[in-house]
Amino acid sequence: MNNAEIEYKSKEEIKRFQEEKMQEALQYLSRHSLFYQRMFREHDIDVAQIRQLEDLRQIPFTDKKDLQLYNQDFLCVSPEKVIDFITTSGTLGDPVTFAMTDKDLDRLAYNEKISFLCTGTQPSDIVQLMTTIDKRFMAGLAYFLGLRELGAGIVRVGNGIPELQWDTIQRIRPNTIMCVPSFILHIIKYAEEHGIDYRNSSVKKVVCIGENLREQDFSLNLLGQHIKEKWDIDLYSTYASTEMATTFAECEYGCGGHHHPELIICELVDDNGLPVEEGQIGELVVTTLGVEGMPLLRFKTGDLVSIHTEQCRCGRTSMRVSPVVGRANHMIKYKGTTLYPPSINDVLDNTPYVENYVVEVDYNESGNDAILVRIGLRSQVIDDVVKDLKDRFRAKIRVAPEIEICPAADIRKINFPDISRKPVKFIDKRLSSAD
Predict the structure, then answer these.
(1) What DSSP letter does each residue of 116-177 carry, written as one string?
(2) What is the distance between the alpha carbons of residues 268 and 319, in angstroms, rounded to a whole number?
(3) Residue 123 to residues 127, 265, 338: CA-CA distances in angstroms?
């Protein structure tokens, strides 16, 4: 697979290319997917008539509930062809299993190779992975496969343990690290407390996952600014999900995650499932290309983004995806204001006396959304923490949630449960309340 040059072609060429790939994907699903065979039959869809990208709108959406209820019906290969099993959490609480073939792992390696190249990573680089490669996690394996394909050096340290991270940096001298942005602040704090000259270390670049670094205008958000103030290293954002098996990575100009047209078709829809205008926020809907084991057609990711189609200064003409505004099912209506968890996190991640936190959303007695933020504090804090925090929230998001001060150790147990692969900072109790 080597179609990366399509990212530099004209919009018309990209569209024709994707329509050819789309028709191949539809034919494959009609032959091998029990789920989509049933969908096509029930909705009287002739895939041969789906010729243009716009024709995809004739096909119903697929969502996470479908994946959980009919998981095995999405499998398009015989069981003996499955090489790797991965899972992701879903809306019903049970994990969704994804089965990957040898071909899918090759596709995953290609995806991450071209994504790392987009961030300027070269074969001569050494990359320290501060992400787990176990716990049925796709991303950690994907990074390893992509860097191996690229020919870069790889240091698999895993997440957490700042002491081990700095020991590895000092021993092996990687120039790039890959981690969740907020963890950068943790390793900076450890370095400051232990006399490590982190600003003059070998690390010059961070490829970030899982959290936003930028606002919708692509300027650094408070978290990104805080990192840069402490440590002047190059920051690159990426966006991906298990279901997409595709990454959108920033280039050096930091103006959104670049789309790989050979790997995925993207749509942006409103609450009614209709296309949104360019520059407007909508839910990202994807159709995977080249996936053998469990390809998806018009899958609703739940992620709210905007799309930019003007040519990037790096020369790529494929579209770019903005930072994620939030998840469609995580929208909060609070005191007349519409919020998403990232805006709350942004305030907390950049309050110097906040050690850790968890945001809980539930319904109040009137049936409206209620927000409780549990905060763990650092050793030295100001006199009236709750008042100061509420002032910070009002200045940034216009409203202030309820705040409860808790021991940082208790919050840490919530943030890092044994079975979780990512930090837990948001708990939506409205789902259980609605049952």
Answers:
(1) HHHTT--TT-EEEE-S-S-TT-HHHHHHHHHHHHHT-EEEE--SS-HHHHHHHHHHH--SEE
(2) 12
(3) 10, 29, 45
Query: 237 with 212: CB under 8 angstroms?
Result: yes
Alpha carbons 249 and 240: distance in angstroms, whole number? 9
Q: Which of 232, 236, 235 is nearest to 247 (CA)?
A: 236
Closest CA to 146 of 178, 169, 175, 180: 178
Cα 196 from chain centroid? 31
Residue burial 304-325, b: 16+ Cβ < 10 Å; e: rest: bbbbbeeebeeebbbbbbbbbb
- Here the tokens at position 56 are 């995809």
- Structure tokens given for 164: 């081990």
Q: Which two tokens stand for residue 107?
A: 């596709």
Q: Give pLDDT tens digits for 168-199.
A: 999 999 999 999 888 898 899 999 999 999 99
| Alpha-carbon gap, residue 313 to 7, rounded angstroms | 13
Distance CA 300, CA 311 (A): 26
Tell the residue number behind the tokens 């290309």, with chain if given: 289
Determine the 3-state secondary structure of 325 from DSSP. coil
Render pLDDT for 59-97 as a digit per residue (tens, 0 to 9).
999 998 899 899 999 999 999 999 999 987 543 456 788
Encode pLDDT of 382-425 as tens digits.
Answer: 788 999 999 999 888 888 999 999 998 899 888 877 666 667 88
